[in-house]
Amino acid sequence: MRCRVGFDAAAPVRSKRSYFMTTFKIACILFAILPSLTAAARADDLVIWSPAKLSDRSYKATVGFRLPAEWETSAGADIALASTKSGALLPDSEQAMLWGRISRTNVTPAGQSQQGASVRVDTLRGSGALTLSRSRSWILSDSLDMQSSRSISVQYDAVEARQASVTASQALKLIHPWTGTSLSAGTGISNASGDFSSTVGVSQAILPNLNLDASVSNPFSGGEAGSVNLRYRVQW
Question: Which of 224, 198, 227, 232 is nearest to 215 (CA)?
Fold first, then answer.
């Protein structure tokens, strides 16, 4: 074992240098954690919490989170239940649905496009679905806008041992923004039943929140069906 006793003339220099390096490290750490502290202050925007009372004895809540980025990601669960006057749960009223979504939106002066994917899993009934979608809207002319959408969905039911089904659909909508009039046409096909469906419709804006819609399903077959709806929308 060695013991060294003496006077080190460089000690004050090393002491100043050590103090400077310590201060520099602390400053670097503070600058590194400041973005995290700012993000934590905005954490409320990333949490999804939406409870609702549907009736006197039925409740539903959506919980989850969202991550804003180029591909916006969100995931969570829908939970619901209902009870009788005696407090017993109503049969088949429980819901425990897990869901997740990812999407990206591109905006240009001439229009915008969006693509994404979503998944839903019913944990109580053993069914699920995966959906891929893509939509686009653009200026067709000085007085007309166009919207198009496509989607494909794969559904599976493990409890009833059903074969996975695939459903594909696409739609086009022609919009006259100055009058609030739009014409739409859509088609869909499913491999489970082999049915091909089509729909044509027209919509007219009467007031800012009041719309008149009319549509005809399967207009080129003997089983066509029509509907007329008057919709009023309120936001708060």
Answer: 227
Token pair, residue 176, equals: 């006259």
Contact 169, 197 (CB under 8 A): no
Question: Which pLDDT belongs to residue 120?
Answer: 94
Distance between CA atoms of residues 134 and 113, nearest Å: 8
Contacts of 185 (CB under 8 A, 6+ apart): 171, 172, 173, 198, 199, 200, 201
Residue 51 to residues 48, 63, 83, 88: CA-CA distances in angstroms? Answer: 10, 8, 17, 21
Model confidence pLDDT, tens digit, residues 172-184? 999 998 998 999 9
At 84, phi and psi to the nearest 5?
A: -85, 180
Confidence of residue 11 (pLDDT cuts 50, 70, 90): very low
Q: Say if residues 93 and 87 touch (Cβ distance below 8 Å).
A: no
pLDDT tens string 120-143 = 999 888 889 999 999 999 999 989
- Tokens read off for 143: 């007085």
Q: Collapsing DSSP states into helix, strand and coil, what is residue 84?
A: coil
Question: Please, are residues 97 and 72 in contact by the beta-carbon 8 Å criterion?
Answer: no
Torsion angle, CA of 208/50/86/95, rounded to 10 degrees?
Answer: 100
How far apart (Å, rounded) are the C-alpha atoms in residues 142 and 225?
34
Would you say residue 214 has pLDDT above 60? yes
